[in-house]
Specification:
alpha/beta, two-stranded antiparallel sheet, globular
Length: about 110
């Protein structure tokens, strides 16, 4: 998947969100990590891994619609509080656009 995106990383769950400081008090990489990869422990149940992409210009809607090949997916994991409407919509679209891959629901993984 990273061939199509700029990278990614595991989310760190913290008691309090870190304060983001401007340069020169905090370097850009540290500020970016804190913005993208830090969430409060309230969200720890998500066990999230985030991907990211950057552009040298203001990203358009078209830029943000990144098309990943079917081979980039090996399974789909649905979240804890997904509605029946969203669940059915995702399952239908996965079958149409990706094919027959495993679809799990988070609460069934425990």
């Amino acid at each position: 998947m990273f061939r199509f995106l700029s990278g990614g990383g595991k989310v760190e769950y913290v008691d309090e969100l870190p304060i983001i400081l401007p340069k020169p008090f905090m370097n850009f990489a540290e500020a970016l990590r804190n913005i993208i990869y830090c969430k409060t422990k309230d969200w720890e149940f998500e066990d999230e891994y985030r991907t990211k992409n950057f552009w040298s210009h203001v990203a358009s809607i078209s830029d943000r619609k990144i098309k990943l090949p079917k081979e980039a997916f090996n399974k789909i994991i649905l979240g804890d509080n997904i509605s029946d409407i969203d669940r059915n919509d995702i399952i239908e679209n996965v079958r149409i656009h990706i094919g027959d891959i495993e679809i799990l629901e988070r609460y069934n993984l425990i």
